[in-house]
Amino acid sequence: HHLIYTIAPKALIPLTQTTGEKPDRLRWVMKRDQISGPYLRHALKISEFFTALTAALRPQKAWRLVHWKQGREIHQRFKQGANGTIRPDALIVLMSPAQEPKGFLLEMDNATIREAKMLERYKRYWQFWKAKGHSRFKLEGFRVLTVCPHPTRAQNLRALAHQADDEQRGSGMFLFTHQQWSATDPTPILHPIWHSPKHNSPSSLIEL
Question: Of 180, 76, 164, 168, which is closest to residue 125 (Cα–Cα)?
Answer without folding.
Answer: 164
